[in-house]
From TrEMBL:
<dbReference type="GO" id="GO:0004316">
    <property type="term" value="F:3-oxoacyl-[acyl-carrier-protein] reductase (NADPH) activity"/>
</dbReference>
<keyword id="KW-0560">Oxidoreductase</keyword>
<dbReference type="InterPro" id="IPR050259">
    <property type="entry name" value="SDR"/>
</dbReference>
<comment type="similarity">
    <text>Belongs to the short-chain dehydrogenases/reductases (SDR) family.</text>
</comment>
<protein>
    <submittedName>
        <fullName>3-oxoacyl-[acyl-carrier-protein] reductase FabG</fullName>
        <ecNumber>1.1.1.100</ecNumber>
    </submittedName>
</protein>
<dbReference type="InterPro" id="IPR002347">
    <property type="entry name" value="SDR_fam"/>
</dbReference>
<dbReference type="Pfam" id="PF00106">
    <property type="entry name" value="adh_short"/>
</dbReference>
<dbReference type="InterPro" id="IPR036291">
    <property type="entry name" value="NAD(P)-bd_dom_sf"/>
</dbReference>
């Protein structure tokens, strides 16, 4: 289960590149790493579940938390892509 996230209320124009990278690394890449570590074994065993806890902010991005919302949208994309890649042992499309 991937349920890690950092956020802050900040004006879009005030968020520096390093802060965008930090949010993406913590909120997205950490779940990618965890999934990559465990999902292959699940596929090999023919069973398993990878769960990403996202947020409504991934669908309706708040104006004061754009960087957070973008990472939660990315979590949804990773989750959907992983389901297509590994779901039913890679047979789901």
């Amino acid at each position: 289960m991937n349920n890690l996230g950092i956020y802050n209320d900040v004006d879009f124009f005030a968020v520096e590149d390093d802060e965008w990278a930090r949010f993406y690394d913590v909120n997205v890449v950490s779940g990618v790493r965890l999934s990559r570590h465990y999902a292959q074994g699940m596929v090999e065993k023919g069973w398993g579940r990878v769960i990403f806890i996202s947020s409504e902010s991934g669908v309706a991005i708040p104006a004061d938390m754009i960087n957070y919302g973008v990472t939660k949208s990315a979590n949804l994309a990773v989750s959907h892509g992983l389901a297509k890649t590994a779901g039913r042992n890679g047979r789901d499309g």
